Amino acid sequence: MLPRLASLLFVVAVGATVGFFGLGSTSHVPRGAAVGAPAVPVPDPPVPDADLAPHTAVPDADDPRAPLSETERLNREAVARASADDHAGAARLLREAVRLEPGEDLYRRNLQAVLINAGFALIAEERFDAAVGTFVEALKLGDRSEVRRGLGYAYYRIGQLELARQSLERALEQDAGDPETYLTLGRIYLEKRDHARARAMLERALAAGADHAGLADTVARLQRDAAAEEGFHALASSHFVLKFEGRESTQAGRLVLNALEDAYRTVGARFAYYPLERVEVVLYPDETFRAVTNSPHWSGAVYDGRIKMPIGGLERGSEALQRTLRHEYAHAAITTLSRGRAPVWLNEGLAQVAEDPPTAGRLNRLRMGLAAGDLFTLADLERDFTSLGRERASLAYAQAYYTARYLLEKKGGYNVRRLLEALATAPDVDAALRATLSLSHDELDQRVRADLQRSLG
Hints:
The chain is mainly alpha-helical. The chain has helices at residues 70-83, 87-100, 105-124, 128-139, 145-157, 161-173, 179-191, 195-207, 215-228, 250-271, 286-293, 318-338, 344-355, 360-372, 390-423, 429-437, 441-456, and strands at residues 26-28, 233-236, 240-244, 279-284, 301-303, 307-310.
């Protein structure tokens, strides 16, 4: 008689570790000061415990000495390899077992379990493209929440936000109500500028037990925004949605929308970037603006995923308004292209260039810094400028402006856009610079300093 098939079903136990990265967002004053915005949580890859628990193999009861079938031999060897974390070897053997006996459900379930563990291992190694392929193969063997979770997170990390959203929403439908899924969906909705859904997901993450730096502050900010904007009216243009209090502000709203559309064309031409999704802009009464953004009295506007500005800012005249909105819209474009991973010097530098501002003041500040020998390195300018104090911050902004202008002049707007897109998935700024501009971080720093010396020294 043929031996009975051994029941070697893998049990996948998925635990998780969660950490956070910040979304680089900036509050801005056209004269050059910034207010930091709350960090937005991004979960680290869920890492499985990989607790493989095969059932005991039972030979044929009538003849314990009966040989195993070829498929069962493959199955048992796959279990041994999977237990030793050789996911690729185990998957290869189980694919062959499934090919030989396509009707045997046990081998298909075992193959899917191996692929799930392999996919999460690839996420832990930050090999997200490979993880996508692995989870897609696992999904063909059956729809499971573990597959949807892993696939959604891998899609998220390679920038496929809509595919990530679909996978993770499906995981929730399958009762995967874990903090990591809520957190990642919240992050996706923030990037897609759907703040209502983002708030709902992040609130559910807190309720599910997520307790991480930045999460509670982000939820509080979103709740504060929603309360402050209750009853606001809305106007829309081709590329923006403007929210404001009171119908008496409609004329001011149209003025802002016209300036925003100008910013869309100007910044788009510089970076060859014309997004289809509308950007949300909120026009607050002055005191509400201070309370909502926690910004100082001199702040002219804020970008924290939405452009926010006080209605009093409209009184400065059309030219100042256009510069402010070009600057803030540039922040929106930079954050979207880099998914919030642009270093501060690049984010603030490009936003200043987008203003098309007078340059004399910035160049004089650079000349003074050059003469005193106290210029920053680019590494120094990776962090928020607001901690530097007014004098040092003015130098930081001037250097950021000059560096961004140098890149645009030497490499062109298209390549600067490629740099921003590379930053979205690159491990660090140096890797993104090397991949797109064939420059290391240090080489760029040296070239900008040399150019400064030639121009101003």
